[in-house]
Amino acid sequence: MSHNTLVPRQATPTFKVETLDDTAWRSDKHAEAFMIMIVFYRGLHCPVCSRYLASLENLMPEFRSRGVEVIAVSSDVRERAERARGDWKLETLQIGYGLRLETAREWGLFISAGKGKSSLGIEEPAEFSEPGLFLLKPDGTLYASSIQTMPFARPAFQDVLQAIDFIKKNDYPARGERM
Questions:
Q1: Does 168 have pLDDT greater than 60?
Q2: Dihedral pair phi/psi, residue 104, rounded to 5°
Q3: Which residues pair with 70 in a beta bridge?
Q4: Model pTM?
Q5: Domain boundaries, the chain
Q6: Rounded to whole angstroms, how far apart are CA atoms 62 and 16?
Q7: φ, ψ dihedrals at 141, nearest 5°
């Protein structure tokens, strides 16, 4: 099976996802943002995701002050996404749900098969995407990405904020564009 690789400075696939705010979020509708950050997470069953998104929730005012549009997205159904938002105390972070696995593959995300109950005692979906973090320019081109094959070793959001500050201050270009 081939794995899709998105290339910095190139257009990313446009996608639409339903949110818990009852809006349809589109990756191509944020021209006013300095950057768009899409955080793909595994879902309600993932204890690492709960801590990771809680750290993002705490830094949402910092991302907003820098002009970064942020959304966290999983393939969970709405009910599981609502439970994650409540259980994980995600009050300001925009949550998208129902990510199609075909869309996850277009973004280069890895897909895993469910293996029963997680350490949280929550049943894993039959299939779900593994994590990824994408920074896009407002025109939809890829600036940077980090993709994992498992729940561990994700970029720290404080580091992402520092990188965004450096990018803004130095007009730093996207790197890694030569394949």
A1: yes
A2: -55, -45
A3: 37
A4: 0.96
A5: 34-169
A6: 25
A7: -80, 150
